[in-house]
Amino acid sequence: GGCAGNIAYNLKLIGGDPLPMGTVGTDFEPYRAHLEALGIPDGHVAVVADALTAQAFITTDLDDNQITAFHPGAMNHSHVNRVEDAGPVRLGIVSPDGREGMIDHAEQFAQAGIPFIFDPGQGLPMFHGDELRRFIDLAAWMTVNDYEWQLIRERTGWSEEEVAPHLEALIVTRGGSGSRIYTAGRVIEIPVARVSRIKDPTGCGDAFRAGLIFGLDRGLDWEVTGRIASLMGGIKIETAGTQNHRYTLDAFAARYRESFGHSLDW
Questions:
Q1: Mean pLDDT value across the chain
Q2: What's the first-to-final CA gap in the chain, in angstroms?
Q3: Which of 29, 59, 118, 119 could be bridged to 95 by S-S, CB 3.0 to 4.6 A?
Q4: Which residue out of 206, 221, 250, 265 is catalytically annotated?
């Protein structure tokens, strides 16, 4: 669980090189062992001595509506981590975290010249219009779902056309209707991937974002990157839990061809 852990898990699964950064509590050791077993580094996961790791309890109904109870715990100390301490990094993502940490890390990515994705997610309500406009100015890309995008439009007063000059791409996911990528004056429609069943939507957004990171890091075009992200989210939805799905790269390529009608050239 947690955005950093889930994104790192999915990125590692597809052959990426994740470096999660976050703050955790004194109850983190079992999760640390899990990351070590997966080969995911935890050198930038800081333990806060007098706190517990953030906890989320999510209730999902048969229509995939969700109610979440959340306690931030150690996450509120996320600003103690600094981007420059992570060494050479090709690109980053600012996902839901402590408010101060999200603001600081966006500024630090920009100061270091590291392009990053702004992924406000559940953290979006913490920020007013001026703050959101600043995030968008600093980021190279932004990814949101359709509800989050409407909230950003309301708070910033910016439409898709007005956001475009500030970003290399805006990615808006639309549930069962796929996603749209606004980039370079184009709107690219990304279809949903074929799935065998819908078991648990929790963590699908993180899997999707890992796909975006993978495609960006590999220099793939948006049509392919969006479809990789779509399939990663689709594979996750077939399994309960956020880090219980598995696949080989050959199996992923086969499912990509099955879903989208052409081979994956990566």
A1: 96
A2: 28
A3: 119
A4: 206
List Cα–Cα distances, 11 to 6, 231, 249, in angstroms. 9, 13, 12
Query: Which residue type is seen at 131?
Result: E
Other Cβ atoms closer than 10 A to 230: 23
- Assessment of whether the complete model's pTM goes beyond 0.85: yes
CA distance 225 to 220: 6
The answer to whether the CB of 137 falls within 8 A of the CB of 106 is: no
Question: Residue 206 catalytic?
Answer: yes
Q: What is the DSSP letter of 212?
A: H
Whether domain 3-19+91-260 has CATH 3.40.1190.20: the reply is yes
pLDDT exceeds cutoff 90 at 64? no
Sign of CA dihedral 197, 203, 204, 207: negative
What residue ranges do the domains of the chain occupy? 3-19+91-260
**Tokens in use for 239?**
């399994």
Q: Which of 40, 53, 47 lies closest to 11, judged by CA?
A: 40
Element (H, E) at 67: strand 66-71
